[in-house]
């Protein structure tokens, strides 16, 4: 490998990009090639059932399910933490399964049944998992919380459905209910405030188990 | 209300509401997704446009030209703002680097433009069409390489007592080691976000900010408008950890974008941009020297730390705790600061102590081993009840020994095998480690307004923020305790610059200071209420919605319509006494004997941190900080590309923070403590103590498990796997 | 993200034809990697063909006793399938070691094979990258390359393939079935599916333009103990530093494939003859010719030690 010119950039490219420097070995070339002018957005209609209500949206095809919920339906309980599937704050339940709504286009979900945090419960009528999060202080800033709760509800369902996990010792049996199983399955939901230990207590409480 | 004498008995001491483990009053909003965060305010102003920020692709140099023609012509675009058309902007002393580059570029991903469009999708697409030509300048990006050029980091950078050099040289036992901590990112879950709207020359900003008053101040300075023309609201934040102490590019460019385009503008930083555009905890190189007699009593202790920042920036104060934590007649500390052209370094949860204790408490573990003493006992024999740099100044309270003893007992520390790499559990090597925790307990003046309505509902308004700390609840508890009403009769309004100026959230000062401000306002209100009801204010008892004195009583509702505002103003008690919080961390880890994979099995912290206002949320603060400390010990590192001068791993897939599977059940013990010198609340704050020392406790446990000492954080397995004993 | 038009295809051949006839078109299935990259304009399709309605979401037995896994079978469903858990445990294990529950619910079998590298320079459009922009250079060489490739690298690219699933499939000798725009089908052995970077790191597989994956087939079960050991920087939800997919039989024979080492799942069949001689004997052959950097040289001992653990426990 040639460490003298690690980025393999040549001088012509560099000048074409407008860099007036001699630091040839350390110049990012950047995205300096002339981009093509933007095309007109394409719009499409999509109808889905969100929290039990049929909703039809006319959307730019680029709209993610997350932005359709937050910006178009103003269901802002679903959070944008990274927009790249790396944090889980956008977790919603679609057709019975939890997914990252940031990595799915709204137009990919015609006729889908979408449940968001707002569909699980309301401040005066909390879902048992929401109550348990409050009781066990399973949150701090609250930003990852809707995703954690949607994921927690789905996780308990996935365990009931017998879906194995990375920590399931015996693949052929029914995964045992354990806090290690819950932790592994919840690992796609990052909580930077660090409420993990309390979230486990909340989930164990809802599942009827003791820590 | 002046607070310049230790508090006597006061209404808070009844502890009918304060001190009780209480569910957060904002819980129903947060758990149902109905708490409104900054970017979610569809309700506040019509016709909002979307802003999308473009960051610099060079670390240092000049913008030669910016071509925005294609972006402006892109569908849906309302306007593009760069330094060339932003209008005159000021600077703010809260920032080292400017929030909008041009023509000078000071760091990678410094904002160079904002595109404003009708939709997020259109703004994002158009942002890619902006072409910036740069003149790149050489920069300095390597702390180790710049260490020799580092200079004394301002007044107070150094301290010295006695004759360190001679004492260290003559000490029969001595340790001299270097430790490093990397750049780290706050990585709070909500990226910085703002909505800005202008009404004439008046700005309203809905943002995500820890310090409302600083935000007003900075926006006024940046936009060159009077402070009274700035209205900032931040009722909910998706975490901050120091990253949101100051307004960032989202706030300023939302305001500038709105001013230029005439539309209200909403902006969020994208996650990949957060890491290089905003602040981070700077890396450190630390040298620690400890000398002692054979009995383990320290005779000489020295701590030097090197860090870097942009020109005009500040150091990471990694020597803070070493000035206070252990006794020793001869001592020195020194902070050195190098110029680096990386993004701006600044405060992250427990700045100073967090990285400082990662080094100091690993050094203490090594020192204990040299002495052949138990690590807990070494710390206990070096306890001090006075400031070791100024023996005339006592600690207001200091129960480090109690934390260590109680923590050790609860954890089962006596089961630890002091011989490293000697406990095996199947394929796992098992070890235990511990560390002291230390964090100062600063206070800040704080004001609040309290009023009573005809239903007996007490409403508190203060510009204090709740960044996950539980401010809503402890402020509510304080008002309930003071006014003698149940918590559900209290309404708490936070995070609005039209409210009285509070301490804000930072440096673990928020809980104690802001509730003390509420205490002051409540005392003022109690006087008014008593006067109105014809009762003696000195002896009046507020309880169960009733005010009683001298055998007479009246319902609080008879005082409906009354309102009072006051401010707690702290005197010089914090100079007379060292006010600080203490703890002991105990950790058990398992290390895969084959692969070096590490799993934390148990964590326990024993804390002495003044009166605990809400044990439920205080415990959460501690476990959360322990979790962040686990990240610092095991995985967190912003990796510097020293050629291009930026943090390479700028997303949450590559900048690893702990996930559920990394964190075991965590135990927290609070020692009984009330500090009358700290405030009328007798509290100290506990938001940062949990991260202090825990990283070293984990590191020490890994050493105990494996027998391999890694002094460069984070302790990833590549740094020691080859040195582990062969097992197959 | 550039603007794109969108259509839903209803048959594999139609989907392949739609992509072939539209310049800049791409298939979208789970979208978990493609949308991630489109947001950064690393991928810039002008037209998306949604293949989720193709009916390729079934797992069915093959005539020779194996399994045919539809291209659209979600990672969760593949990992949870009772036949896979019983007969191809290494595949279940690999899938469950990857990503998160949410991502596995969406990600598909074909999409998993087509994941693109996680090299941080590939992910930053401001940086040179021969994979993203051929000829621009490789910033990873001489840069941050702790988690990049040590086997089969070129001076143009040291990226790794991020899939766990593909590593297990490589150990199992899977076959990728496709349909081309002209309607013709073919079967590609997984060994020949991914490419090494060479001079064209932007070309990652041997698929032809418009060629659509329809299924992955597994040969009849080979028995043995199935292990997938993924070593990563945190306990879950992270890409591999290295991984080992192993099938070890009682007679000392077996299969081994490695992840996190190369631009494709890494397998050297000749090394498998040495399983009985221990991890070092295996890695001496499997990792011969490794080209490491100071940052990623740890992968060599780590693979050996990880394999050592697997073989020790398999014998126990």
TrEMBL record, chain A:
Heterotrimer composed of PaoA, PaoB and PaoC. The lineage of its organism: Bacteria, Pseudomonadati, Pseudomonadota, Alphaproteobacteria, Sphingomonadales. GO terms for cellular component: periplasmic space. This is Aldehyde oxidoreductase iron-sulfur-binding subunit PaoA. One of its GO terms (molecular function) is 2 iron, 2 sulfur cluster binding. PANTHER family: ALDEHYDE OXIDOREDUCTASE IRON-SULFUR-BINDING SUBUNIT PAOA, OXIDOREDUCTASE, IRON-SULPHUR BINDING SUBUNIT-RELATED-RELATED. Keywords: 2Fe-2S, Iron, Iron-sulfur, Metal-binding, Oxidoreductase, Periplasm, Signal. Its EC number is 1.2.99.6. It catalyses: an aldehyde + A + H2O = a carboxylate + AH2 + H(+). It comes from the Bacteria. The keyword Iron applies. Its main location: periplasm. PROSITE patterns: 2FE2S_FER_1 (PS00197), 2FE2S_FER_2 (PS51085), TAT (PS51318). It comes from Stakelama marina. It holds the Pfam family Fer2_2. Gene3D superfamilies: 3.10.20.30, [2Fe-2S]-binding domain. It is found in: Periplasm. It is an enzyme of class 1 (oxidoreductase). Residues 44-120 form the 2Fe-2S ferredoxin-type domain. Oxidizes aldehydes to the corresponding carboxylic acids with a preference for aromatic aldehydes. It might play a role in the detoxification of aldehydes to avoid cell damage. The keyword Transcription does not apply.
UniProtKB/TrEMBL annotation, chain B:
GO terms for molecular function: iron ion binding; oxidoreductase activity. Signal peptide: none annotated. InterPro entries: Ald_Oxase/Xan_DH_a/b, Ald_Oxase/Xan_DH_a/b_sf, Ald_Oxase/xanthine_DH-like, AldOxase/xan_DH_MoCoBD1, AldOxase/xan_DH_MoCoBD2, AldOxase/xan_DH_Mopterin-bd_sf, PaoC-like. Gene3D superfamilies: Aldehyde oxidase/xanthine dehydrogenase, a/b hammerhead (3.90.1170.50), Aldehyde oxidase/xanthine dehydrogenase, molybdopterin binding domain (3.30.365.10). It comes from the Bacteria. Residues 32-138 form the Aldehyde oxidase/xanthine dehydrogenase a/b hammerhead domain. SUPFAM superfamilies: CO dehydrogenase molybdoprotein N-domain-like, Molybdenum cofactor-binding domain. Transmembrane segments: none annotated. PANTHER family: ALDEHYDE OXIDOREDUCTASE MOLYBDENUM-BINDING SUBUNIT PAOC, XANTHINE DEHYDROGENASE. This is Xanthine dehydrogenase family protein molybdopterin-binding subunit.
Automatic annotation (TrEMBL), chain C:
Residues 1-223 form the FAD-binding PCMH-type domain. InterPro entries: CO_DH_flav_C, CO_DH_flav_C_dom_sf, Diverse_Substr_Oxidored, FAD-bd_PCMH, FAD-bd_PCMH-like_sf, FAD-bd_PCMH_sub1, FAD-bd_PCMH_sub2, Mopterin_DH_FAD-bd. It comes from the Bacteria. Keywords: FAD, Flavoprotein. SMART domains: CO_deh_flav_C. Signal peptide: none annotated. PROSITE patterns: FAD_PCMH (PS51387). The keyword Flavoprotein applies. This is Xanthine dehydrogenase family protein subunit M. It comes from Stakelama marina. The lineage of its organism: Bacteria, Pseudomonadati, Pseudomonadota, Alphaproteobacteria, Sphingomonadales.
């Amino acid at each position: 490998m040639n460490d003298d010119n690690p980025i393999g950039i040549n001088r012509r490219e560099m000048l074409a990009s407008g860099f007036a420097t001699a630091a040839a070995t350390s110049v990012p070339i950047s995205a300096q090639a002339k981009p093509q002018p933007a095309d007109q957005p394409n719009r499409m209609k999509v109808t889905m059932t969100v929290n039990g209500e049929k909703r039809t949206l006319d959307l730019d095809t680029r709209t993610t399910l997350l932005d359709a919920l937050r910006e178009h339906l103003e269901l802002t309980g679903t959070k944008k933490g990274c927009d790249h599937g790396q944090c889980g704050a956008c977790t919603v339940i679609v057709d019975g399964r939890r997914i990252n709504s940031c990595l799915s286009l709204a137009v990919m979900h015609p006729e889908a049944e979408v449940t968001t945090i707002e569909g699980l419960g309301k401040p005066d009528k909390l879902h048992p998992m929401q109550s348990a999060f409050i009781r066990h202080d399973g949150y701090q800033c609250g930003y990852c919380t809707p995703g954690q709760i949607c994921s927690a509800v789905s996780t308990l369902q996935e365990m009931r459905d017998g879906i194995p996990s990375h920590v399931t010792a015996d693949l052929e049996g029914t995964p045992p209910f354990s806090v290690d199983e819950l932790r592994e399955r919840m690992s796609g939901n990052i909580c930077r405030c660090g409420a993990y230990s309390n979230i486990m207590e909340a989930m164990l409480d809802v599942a009827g188990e003791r820590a | 209300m002046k607070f310049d004498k230790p508090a006597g008995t006061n209404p808070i001491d009844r502890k009918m509401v304060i001190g009780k483990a209480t569910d957060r009053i904002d819980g129903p909003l947060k758990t149902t997704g109905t708490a409104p965060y900054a970017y979610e305010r569809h309700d506040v102003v019509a016709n909002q446009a979307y802003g999308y920020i473009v960051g610099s692709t060079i670390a240092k140099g000049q913008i030669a030209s910016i071509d925005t023609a294609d972006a402006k012509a892109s569908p849906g675009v309302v306007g593009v703002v760069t330094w060339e058309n932003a209008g005159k902007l000021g600077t703010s002393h809260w920032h080292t680097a400017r929030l909008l580059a041009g023509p000078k570029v000071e760091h990678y991903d410094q904002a160079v433009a904002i595109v404003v469009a009708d939709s997020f999708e259109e703004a994002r697409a158009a942002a890619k069409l902006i072409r910036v030509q740069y003149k790149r300048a050489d920069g300095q990006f390597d702390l180790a390489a710049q260490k020799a050029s580092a200079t004394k980091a301002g007044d107070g950078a150094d301290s010295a007592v006695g004759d360190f050099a001679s004492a260290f040289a003559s000490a029969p036992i001595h340790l001299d080691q270097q430790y490093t901590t990397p750049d780290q990112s706050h990585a709070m879950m909500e990226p910085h976000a703002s909505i800005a709207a202008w009404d004439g020359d008046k700005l309203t900003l809905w943002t995500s900010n820890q310090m409302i008053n600083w935000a007003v101040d900075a926006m006024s300075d940046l936009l060159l408008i009077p402070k009274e023309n700035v209205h900032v609201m931040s009722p909910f934040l998706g975490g901050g950890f120091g990253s949101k102490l100051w307004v960032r590019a989202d706030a300023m460019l939302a305001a500038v974008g709105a001013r230029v385009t005439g539309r209200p503008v909403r902006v969020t930083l994208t996650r990949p941009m957060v890491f290089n555009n905003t602040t981070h905890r700077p890396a450190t190189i630390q040298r620690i020297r400890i000398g002692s007699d054979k009995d383990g009593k320290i005779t000489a202790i020295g701590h030097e730390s090197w860090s870097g920042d942009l020109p005009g920036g500040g150091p990471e104060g990694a020597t803070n705790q070493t000035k206070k934590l252990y006794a020793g007649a001869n001592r020195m500390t020194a902070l050195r600061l190098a110029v680096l052209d990386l993004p701006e370094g600044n405060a992250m949860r427990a700045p100073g102590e967090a990285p400082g204790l990662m080094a100091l408490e690993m050094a203490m573990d090594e020192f204990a081993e040299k002495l052949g003493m138990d690590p807990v006992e070494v710390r206990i024999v070096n306890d001090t009840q006075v400031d070791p740099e100024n023996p005339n100044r006592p600690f207001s309270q200091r129960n480090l020994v109690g934390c260590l003893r109680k923590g050790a007992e609860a954890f089962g520390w006596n089961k630890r095998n002091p011989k490293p790499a000697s406990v095996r559990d199947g394929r796992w090597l098992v070890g235990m480690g511990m560390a002291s925790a230390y964090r100062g307990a600063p206070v800040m003046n704080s004001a609040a307004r309290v009023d009573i309505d005809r239903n007996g509902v007490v409403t508190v308004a203060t510009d204090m923020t709740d960044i996950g700390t539980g401010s809503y609840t402890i402020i509510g508890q304080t008002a309930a305790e003071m006014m003698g009403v149940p918590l559900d009769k209290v309404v708490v309004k936070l995070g609005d610059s039209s409210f009285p100026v509070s301490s804000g959230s930072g440096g673990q000062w928020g809980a104690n200071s802001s509730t003390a401000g509420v205490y002051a306002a409540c005392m003022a209100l109690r006087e008014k209420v008593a006067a109105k009801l014809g009762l003696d204010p000195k002896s009046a008892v507020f309880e169960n919605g009733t005010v009683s004195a001298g055998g007479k009583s009246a319902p609080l509702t008879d005082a409906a319509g009354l309102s009072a505002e006051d401010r707690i103003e702290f005197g010089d008690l914090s100079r007379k006494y060292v006010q600080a919080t203490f703890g002991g961390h105990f950790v058990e880890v398992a290390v895969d004997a084959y692969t070096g994979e590490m799993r934390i099995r148990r964590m326990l912290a024993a804390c002495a941190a003044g009166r605990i206002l809400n044990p439920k949320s205080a415990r959460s603060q501690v476990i959360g900080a322990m979790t962040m400390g686990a990240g610092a010990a095991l995985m967190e590192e912003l990796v510097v590309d020293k050629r291009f001068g930026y943090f390479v791993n700028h997303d949450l897939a590559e900048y690893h923070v702990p996930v559920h599977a990394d964190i075991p059940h965590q135990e927290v013990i609070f020692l009984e403590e009330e500090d009358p010198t700290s405030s009328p609340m007798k509290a100290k704050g506990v938001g940062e103590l949990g991260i202090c020392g825990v990283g070293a406790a984990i590191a020490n446990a890994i050493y105990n498990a494996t027998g391999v000492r890694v002094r460069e954080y984070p302790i990833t397995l590549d740094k020691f796997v080859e040195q582990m004993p062969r097992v197959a | 993200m550039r603007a794109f038009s969108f259509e839903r295809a209803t048959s594999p051949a139609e989907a392949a034809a739609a992509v072939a006839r539209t310049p800049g078109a791409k298939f979208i299935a789970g979208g978990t990697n493609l949308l991630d990259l489109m947001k950064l304009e690393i991928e810039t399709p002008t037209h998306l063909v949604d293949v989720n309605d193709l009916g390729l979401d079934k797992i069915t037995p093959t005539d020779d006793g194996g399994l045919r896994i539809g291209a659209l079978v979600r990672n969760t469903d593949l990992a949870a399938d009772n036949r896979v858990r019983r007969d191809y445990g290494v595949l279940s294990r690999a899938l469950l070691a990857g990503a998160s529950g949410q991502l596995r619910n969406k990600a598909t079998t074909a999409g998993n094979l087509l994941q693109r590298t996680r090299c941080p320079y590939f992910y930053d459009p401001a940086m040179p990258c021969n994979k993203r922009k051929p000829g621009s250079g490789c910033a990873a060489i001489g840069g941050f390359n702790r988690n990049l490739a040590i086997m089969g690298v070129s001076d143009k690219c040291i990226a790794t393939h991020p899939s766990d699933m593909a590593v297990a499939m490589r150990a199992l000798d899977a076959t990728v079935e496709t349909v081309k725009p002209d309607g013709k089908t073919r079967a590609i052995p997984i060994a020949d599916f991914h490419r090494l970077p060479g001079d064209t790191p932007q070309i990652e597989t041997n698929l032809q333009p418009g060629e659509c994956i329809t299924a992955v087939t597994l040969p009849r079960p080979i028995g043995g103990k199935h292990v997938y050991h993924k070593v990563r920087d945190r306990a879950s939800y992270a890409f591999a530093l290295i991984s080992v997919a192993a099938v070890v039989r009682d007679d000392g024979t077996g299969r081994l494939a490695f992840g996190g080492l190369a631009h494709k799942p890494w397998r050297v069949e000749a090394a498998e003859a040495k399983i009985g001689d221990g991890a070092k004997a295996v890695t001496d052959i499997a990792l011969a010719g490794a080209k490491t950097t100071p940052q990623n040289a740890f992968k060599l001992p780590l693979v050996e030690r990880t394999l050592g653990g697997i073989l020790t426990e398999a014998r126990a």
